[in-house]
Write a structure and sequence with these properties.
single chain; alpha/beta; D-Maltodextrin-Binding Protein, domain 2; 5 helices; globular
Length: 135
C-alpha cells in the first residue's frame, strides 16, 4: 500500500512538472523566440516573421497547459491575464486568442491552418505539427 501511494505521488509530481510546447503548422518557417511568442499571445504582434497573419489558439482557463503557459511564457497569472484582456476588449484595442477545450483540439486546429500558433502539453505533441519552443 505504501508503495502505491508513493507511485501515485510521483505520477502526480511528474504531471505537474510537464512542460508546454508552442506549436505551429509544419509549413511555417518563421523564426520564434520567447519575446515573439509572448507578443503574439498578448495581441502585440499580429503576424509571423514570414508576413502571414498570426492566429493564436489558447486553451480554456484552468487547464494545466494554460496555467503552465501563462506562468512560464506570459509571466502572468490567470487573473492578471483576464484583467489585461478585459481592458483591451473594452477599449477596442484587441481580442484574446481563440480558446480550444483541450490539447487535441489545438493540435487539430494548428495542423489544419498554416496561420495558427498554439500551445499544448509537451506530452501531447504529434508529428502533425512543428514545435517551435518548449517551456
Amino acid at each position: 500500500m505504501k508503495n502505491l501511494i508513493y507511485i501515485a505521488f510521483m505520477l502526480l509530481c511528474a504531471q505537474s512538472y510537464a512542460g508546454v510546447a508552442v506549436i505551429v503548422h509544419p509549413s511555417n518557417a518563421s523564426s520564434f523566440d520567447d519575446s515573439t511568442i509572448k507578443r503574439i499571445f498578448t495581441g502585440k504582434e499580429k503576424s509571423f516573421s514570414n508576413g502571414n497573419k498570426a492566429i493564436p489558439i489558447g486553451q480554456e482557463a484552468g487547464s494545466a497547459a494554460t496555467e503552465e503557459f501563462n506562468s512560464k511564457v506570459l509571466n502572468k497569472s490567470s487573473a492578471q491575464l483576464k484583467a489585461y484582456w478585459s481592458k483591451l476588449i473594452f477599449t477596442g484595442k484587441g481580442t484574446p486568442p481563440k480558446e480550444a477545450s483541450n490539447d487535441a483540439e489545438v493540435l487539430q486546429t494548428v495542423s489544419g491552418n498554416p496561420d495558427t500558433i498554439g500551445f499544448v502539453s509537451s506530452s501531447a505533441v504529434t508529428g502533425d505539427v512543428k514545435v517551435v519552443k518548449e517551456f
